[in-house]
Write a structure and sequence with these properties.
single chain; about 220 residues; alpha+beta; 60s Ribosomal Protein L30, Chain: A; 4-stranded mixed β-sheet; 4 strands
């Protein structure tokens, strides 16, 4: 039991400090803190101030949420408009369709991730990200997923040549254990995942897809 930390947390709570503020001074989990403080009453002298800060934080969070939604809607709206100046480019359509089929499209994380084991498909997508999406080189991150039987010392070098991304931008390779005792495909090089951290680009790509879905040619 962290008696010293518990006493400090109780004292701060009685002084009207929020859980978030107390956690800055007591190195425990939020669950532990909740257990310690569930029966502790805040001094009435500080209660109004605490409630005021909580209301202010909530209002700030709601304001940031509205701003995020408005920004997202603007990016998607602009992306829908620009599709028709891009769709004649074969690379634009090829990359968009491949991402639509194989890429991560979860609105919750807004994460750009494309995964495949075909090196030619990975080359096309890297070209698409670079030329169409104009992703800066330093934004690329590569993750490899390899079955234990197919693991080779040169695998990261192989995908570095395919993607033209330096090994310094590779995450640690995930090696999956297997019960198999022999390789079924001696030419298999694992699965490569391209990752780009850019929420605005994710929203723009969503706008491109929505423009095609909502186009009149698909409604006829």
């Amino acid at each position: 039991m962290k008696l010293k930390e518990r006493r400090k947390a109780i004292r701060l709570r009685r002084l009207g400090k929020s859980y978030g503020e107390i956690l800055k001074y007591t190195p425990v989990s939020k669950g532990t803190l909740s257990l310690w403080l569930r029966d502790i009453e805040v001094n009435p002298k500080f209660l109004a101030e605490l409630r005021g800060r909580e209301i202010s934080r909530y209002a700030g969070a709601k304001a940031r949420q509205r701003q995020r939604i408005e920004k997202t809607e603007l990016i998607i709206r602009d992306a829908k408009k620009e599709v028709w100046s891009l769709y004649r480019d074969p690379l634009f359509l090829a990359g968009l369709m491949l991402y639509w089929a194989e890429g991560d499209k979860s609105d919750e994380n807004e994460q750009i991730k494309f995964t495949n084991s075909d090196p030619e498909m990975i080359r096309v997508m890297m070209c698409w990200f670079r030329k169409v999406c104009v992703v800066p080189e330093e934004k690329f991150r590569i993750s490899l997923h390899v079955h234990e039987l197919h693991c080779r010392s040169d695998m990261e070098d192989y995908w570095s040549r395919v993607t033209k991304v330096p090994l310094t931008q590779f995450h640690k390779t995930y090696i999956k254990q297997t019960s198999l005792r022999y390789r079924k495909n001696h030419l298999y090089n694992g699965t490569c995942a391209i990752r780009v951290s850019n929420r605005d680009l994710f929203r723009r790509m969503k706008g491109w897809r929505l423009a095609i879905v909502e186009s009149e040619s698909l409604r006829k």
